[in-house]
Design goal:
By secondary structure, the protein is α+β, with helices and mostly antiparallel strands. The protein is 17% helix and 19% strand. It has a single domain, classed as Glucose Oxidase, domain 1, CATH 3.50.30.60.
Length: 78
């Protein structure tokens, strides 16, 4: 929400999310982390892709923040 309200995501043409590990939900939650992220990001009106192997999981690809990438046919090309 902070990034969205600060305008940092304005002009984004797509959102690419990494893997989220060790992000437990509250007991009894009837939603997932993906649900929360989609709820926050959907108003941007851009495609949202998830599961990119960046972050702190087993797969940890290098990622240059701000570097242009291409999404073709639902595949991220770097």
């Amino acid at each position: 929400m902070t990034l969205r309200h600060a305008g940092i995501l304005d002009g984004a043409r797509a959102i690419v999310l990494g893997e989220f590990v060790r992000c437990p939900l509250p007991a009894g939650a009837d939603y997932s982390l993906a649900d929360v992220l989609l709820d926050v990001l959907a108003p941007l009106g851009v495609p949202i892709y998830g599961g990119l192997g960046v972050g702190h999981g087993e797969r940890n690809l290098s990622w240059v923040v701000g570097r242009p990438v291409e999404i073709r046919g639902g595949v991220l090309l770097r």
